[in-house]
Design goal:
Helices cover about 50% and strands about 20% of the residues. It contains 15 helices and 15 strands.
């Protein structure tokens, strides 16, 4: 204990003793007469004086600290202890150390304060911050400091160097020169260890007071007490930072995983063991027309048709991956009443689906168990792969293969029919030359020749249509393509009472194209027009030239296209025709 403290304590105890003695004799003279006092009364007074000694001493100590010994620093010392207790709630280590530095400089009237934090990777202490008393020039510290003298020791609460700027100081003389240079540059007299759970996390460097005096033992005790709170605050700050990093990493991984799930072009849902939906990605929203907000928390039976749910239940107890191929997924599998009833039971506010499906989907479904990291089954993962277009394409490929076979058959038939037609036409022309023009037989033979020629044109058109042509673009006579196509459907149109009217321009600009492909286009349009006029009607085809371009207009007197189907006229797989009608 230093001289100042001895003097202060002696002074306090002397005053406290005098106060107790004065109180003791005052009570005797006021209450008793010294000649009449009895031994029991004397013992009572002695006990009373003993019991009030400590309270009187504390009160005198507080008053002397406030008005004599510390004066202006008293309130700061008291609030410093209270401040230390609040440090554990601070999570920002930089802000916390800055506050501690300011409080220490104001409370202890020291020149500068520094903090040395433990680097958990290297295991060495590093200078974290250095704070000067207000109004003083900041200290210039070299970038490389040898702080090897700061060690995690538990045998003493602080290190003391009487004259750190004197390199030949007896205490520091045993240290390496680089350490002594560091100590002289820092100019700290005290290095107080900040310990938590037996481990030193930091050191507080404190200089002498502004008057050049050493700190009193009370000041050092206060500094040691504060260091323990600082250690706890540093540990809490590091734990908080670690949790923040882990939370940020978890959030990043979660967002990354969600982005993967949202980016793939298959519908994915995750359900718990009670079949309640936990996850519902964007693609499955598009497939079902049910929004994520509406689906999450609901059971599979509330979201999918019974037939599909039975497939899910079939593999409930199996641990492997199971597939359901080409299952039908209706565009809206539940009535509005079902949706509203389920929403009320779950306390949900329904949102309108942002992209409701407009057609039934064909999906391949994969059902797999959802496993936690400790290999416990926690639910199921169900994947929906929309194969509607693929299924339609496969169907059309099969149909195209059939048409190809029919085309080959038609080509063979055309070749076989052309031969007898040529014979009939030749003999009819020969017989016509042998009879006079006035003869009735001449007119009959002329009709036979014309009809065989017409039949030959039909057969040749059928042969050209069935023949696979290259996709190269060549000069095309658009009017000729239209006439040949009209010839192909003429007989069909006559059977259903459809009249064909061709208004073809005499001259059209030269155009390049593929006659076979164009004929297929016109044939499809003509057949669609026929189907739109089951009771008969008129098909008009008009061509004209304008601004160097050839134009074709096809119209019919059928029922037309309904407004709700207009936006789907370019969908290659959309049709309003019944089965086996194309």
């Amino acid at each position: 204990m230093d001289v100042d403290i001895i003097f202060q304590q002696g002074y306090v105890y002397t005053l406290a003793t005098l106060a107790v003695i004065g109180t003791f004799y005052g009570l005797i003279f006021l209450i008793f007469n010294t000649r009449n006092i009895t031994p029991p009364a004397f013992v009572v007074l002695i006990s009373f004086a003993t019991s009030v000694f400590q309270p009187i001493r504390r009160w005198i100590q507080e008053q002397l600290d406030r008005w004599v010994f510390y004066r202006d620093r008293y309130d700061a010392r008291v609030t410093l202890v209270e401040f230390a207790r609040e440090l554990s709630s601070e999570t920002d280590v930089n802000a916390m150390l800055s506050k501690v530095s300011d409080r220490l400089i104001r409370t202890l009237s020291i020149q500068h304060v520094g903090f040395f934090l433990l680097n958990e990777i290297s295991g060495r202490f590093e200078l974290h911050s250095l704070t000067q008393k207000t109004g003083k020039q900041p200290k210039q510290i070299a970038s490389s400091l040898d702080l090897s003298f700061l060690e995690d020791t538990t045998d003493k609460p602080y290190l003391f160097f009487e004259r750190p700027k004197h390199l030949r100081d007896i205490v520091s003389q045993e240290l390496p020169e680089s350490v002594r240079e560091t100590m002289g540059e820092l100019d700290f007299t005290y290095y107080v260890a900040c310990r938590s759970h037996g481990k030193t996390l930091a050191f507080i460097g404190a200089s002498r007071t502004t008057e050049g005096d050493f700190l009193s033992s009370d000041d050092i005790d206060l500094l040691v007490t504060l260091s323990n709170y600082v250690a706890i605050a540093i540990e809490n700050s590091r734990l908080y930072s670690s949790l923040e990093r882990k939370a940020s990493e978890y959030e990043r991984l979660k967002e990354f995983s969600e982005n993967i799930v949202e980016s793939i072009n298959v519908g994915i849902l995750a359900a718990d063991l009670e079949d309640r939906v936990e996850s519902w990605n964007t693609q499955i929203e598009r497939l079902t027309g049910i929004s994520r907000a509406e689906a999450v928390g609901r059971t599979l039976s509330e979201l999918f048709p019974a037939e599909l749910v039975s497939n899910f239940d079939e593999f409930r107890s199996d641990s492997g991956v199971h597939n359901v191929y080409k299952a039908s997924l209706p565009p809206r599998v539940q009535s509005d009443e079902q949706v509203e009833d389920g929403a009320r039971r779950h306390g949900l506010e329904l949102a309108k689906p942002t992209n409701p499906p407009v057609r039934e989907s064909i999906v391949n479904i994969a059902i797999a168990p959802l496993i936690s990291k400790d290999l416990q089954r926690i639910g199921r993962l169900i994947i929906f792969d929309d194969v509607t277009d693929r299924d339609e394409l496969e169907r059309r490929l099969v149909q195209a293969d059939k048409l190809s076979s029919i085309g080959l058959l038609a080509a063979g038939v055309a070749h076989e029919v052309n031969t007898p037609l040529a014979v009939i036409s030749t003999y009819a022309q020969m017989l016509a030359k042998q009879v006079s023009e006035d003869d009735q037989k001449s007119k009959l033979l002329e009709k036979i020749a014309k009809q065989t020629f017409r039949a030959s044109e039909i057969v040749n058109s059928l042969l050209n249509f069935s023949r696979t042509s290259p996709t190269d673009f060549i000069a095309v006579d658009l009017n000729r393509v239209i006439r040949e196509t009209a010839t192909l459907v003429e007989h069909q149109f006559q059977k259903v009472g459809v009249e064909t009217r061709l208004e073809l321009a005499d001259s059209l600009p030269v155009m390049r194209g593929n006659s076979g492909k164009l004929q297929q286009v016109f044939l499809n349009l003509f057949i669609n027009a026929r189907d739109a006029m089951p009771g008969g009607g008129l098909l008009s085809v008009r061509t004209w030239a304008e601004a160097g371009l050839a134009h074709v207009e096809i119209s019919d007197t059928g029922q037309g296209i309904s407004p709700e189907h207009l936006r789907r006229i370019y969908d290659p797989f959309f049709t309003t025709k019944g089965p086996k009608k194309g």
